[in-house]
Amino acid sequence: MRPTPRVETFPANTPAASQIFTTVLSQGPLTRLEVARRTALSPAAVTKAVKPLIEAGYLVEDAADEVRPALGRPANPVRVDGGRALFLGVKVTGDEIIGVLTDLCCRTRGARRVPLADRAPKPVLAAIADLVGELLVQTAELGVGVHGLGVAVSGDVDRAEGVVRYSPFLNWHDVPLAELAAMTVGLPVTVDNDVRALTVAEQWFGAGVGLSDFAVVTVGAGIGCGLVVHGRVVAGAHGVAGEIGHVTVDPAGPPCHCGNRGCVEAIAGEAAIVRQVREATGIEVRDATEAVTLAHRGVPGVREVYARAGEAIGRGIATVANLLGPERVIISGEGLAAYDLFAEQIRDTLTAAAFGSAAQCDVQTRPLPFEEWARGAAATAIQSFITPDDPHPSR
Amino acid sequence: MRPTPRVETFPANTPAASQIFTTVLSQGPLTRLEVARRTALSPAAVTKAVKPLIEAGYLVEDAADEVRPALGRPANPVRVDGGRALFLGVKVTGDEIIGVLTDLCCRTRGARRVPLADRAPKPVLAAIADLVGELLVQTAELGVGVHGLGVAVSGDVDRAEGVVRYSPFLNWHDVPLAELAAMTVGLPVTVDNDVRALTVAEQWFGAGVGLSDFAVVTVGAGIGCGLVVHGRVVAGAHGVAGEIGHVTVDPAGPPCHCGNRGCVEAIAGEAAIVRQVREATGIEVRDATEAVTLAHRGVPGVREVYARAGEAIGRGIATVANLLGPERVIISGEGLAAYDLFAEQIRDTLTAAAFGSAAQCDVQTRPLPFEEWARGAAATAIQSFITPDDPHPSR
């Protein structure tokens, strides 16, 4: 494990205490009795763990929320005081860096973007430092400490070691980003794959709260997938997991940058859509925005490209459903701008290709701008603060 | 929850005690200190949990295994006394019922097969009763109690409720098999999907011991998959999981019984292989054994059928690797009789279609006869005995 600067130590220093705090954080306000029920811990253990957390100001007892049972003494619900601590989250894309300032409940308190002229580690670190500096100006006004920075990067990221093993978009190999960023900004830094970071935000603060098995599918430049199984984000024994974009849909299909043919991403990724729209129309569309515009104008052949993309995504989701049987699939990403163009095909293909009751999984769409990905990065920093010894905490 | 007859209550009645016993069962003999390390529990908690288990005869302290540290008192390893309790396991196929008698360590003490003339629930239950009766004769000689029966059936099985929701091979719908079998044989009964039962045996007693993420892929009449993620067998929120046989390999491929085209099973299942060998050779082969014989004789066109089957299986395994990144994939099933005919294609396709480091997963083959599936059923009965309140226990 790499050394990280420590700003303040969180007072929940046992797995049970972390679990109790996490439960209140994502599902509260809750009475101690309800926390005990949901964590399968004893009420005495909950009371014991809650005490130092209240003393340190991380939990508050809310008299306004008081529940008065017919018998016995009133059971005061406890909730997290979001304003007790601040966190930073950064998402690195190929063109810009998006940063947010959040509170302990992962509510966004500020956001900034800075363009990225050069994708090499040094200029990226400099841009992160600039952006963090801008966001920290705000925190001075709030008078609350910043307890960590999360950085989300696409590709193969080893969160435990803090290393970006390989990021195709940035063309990075084995960059010890957590250590470099920690030295630059003077905060503890958590580095994670961007789709996994988004999944953490959904699991703790979004549409995955209370679910033990769900998937987040992101549609955009790439097609990604974050998986939560048995209450924990799947990281893969060798760093690779959730690669729904490289599920083969058609072995005779178009070539993919991964070296295979007919991957979901080779049919439904933004570059693939732009290419197919050019081929179908002869119009030199530059990007996905233009392709969507052509589709909405009814230019012949464009809707068919999106229909095929929807089928490919639906088949990828069906594969996830057939293998893992998730309770819910959350579809998100910047590609959702085109969602009306392929929503029907995604649902129809999923229904047709899902095996038996796997088709029962609930499909939701959540339009998430890049700031939400940065918020995902902040969520990983919150996780690291609460459960410093567990690189992949559960709910 | 359905009521089940109770033969004897296991003295580990907390989750921690179950976890301690399970660790010794699958990884022992171990010293108490080593158990504490592996379970992340305190040495005091381990000592406390071990005591009643030794008193009841489930654990024994082995002086022969004594480890003498240079300093301090000797640390006696504890191990499970396999002979302390017996279990029965039954695998139901379309043609016969295979049963085994095992000890608490899931070592086979006896095996029997009875043919099945009729697949309706009543005659199947009668056949199970006959087979159990034959196996119980043996137990009388051993003078040890039988503590449970496990029944493994292919299809959608709800283990918690003890119901076979849908089994295509048997043409069963919503059969409360656990309750019916418990009334018939007078033992607590655990019912599970056959591939999941085999996965439990691998997890607790086989090639999956000590791994938190692995897959068992079974090749034969059907192509199945049992998945262990974060130390627990994946059951799926709606009962379906591990359906690798219905991953689409080629949307233009042959029709599958599930209603889609080009599923792994529609290309590599035994019926599909027999059909393709007939088409390629014009020879009226009756079953997979004849098809393998033709391939080994070098009849033109037959090896190509197996090569395509191997590619389909390899692509299915690559999909599992890309989504979950398991440490190990264990390939098994009666179809392994043909393994030399498609092993190369499985490995080559997996290597080509796995994304990045996902290809690093260790692939093992384990030829498992039907008796091993029955042993898997016995393993689920052992699980239920040790952790009666958890329908899907972890290691």
UniProtKB/TrEMBL annotation, chains A, B:
Transmembrane segments: none annotated. It comes from the Bacteria. InterPro entries: ATPase_NBD (IPR043129), ROK (IPR000600), ROK_cs (IPR049874), WH-like_DNA-bd_sf (IPR036388), WH_DNA-bd_sf (IPR036390). Signal peptide: none annotated. Pfam families: HTH_24 (PF13412), ROK (PF00480). Belongs to the ROK (NagC/XylR) family. This is ROK family transcriptional regulator.
